[in-house]
Amino acid sequence: SMLGHYKNGLPCIIEEGVAKLPDRTAFAGSVATFDRLVRNMINMAEVPVHEAVKMATKTPAKIMNFNDRGALIPGLRADVILFDDNIDISFVMVNGNIVLNI
Question: How far apart are CA 79 and CA 92, in angstroms?
């Protein structure tokens, strides 16, 4: 795998869900998925679901000045994920195309 940009990023390996430098001298970053991060905030930090989702969507978009995304508002870009109370994903739409529908 590559940490950062694929052209000039830092090579890394992923073992047991952890990204590490190839010589295993340091962690190289997180490989946690969206659902895992949201679930952790809800279960470990006791953050309400709507706040955890905002932390994973609207806040990063705002920090990166992506003013065309980060919320489900007409006119903004939006990928859509539906999940249940356990944060198990059942539906994913990317660029208007359904890519998962369980």
Answer: 7
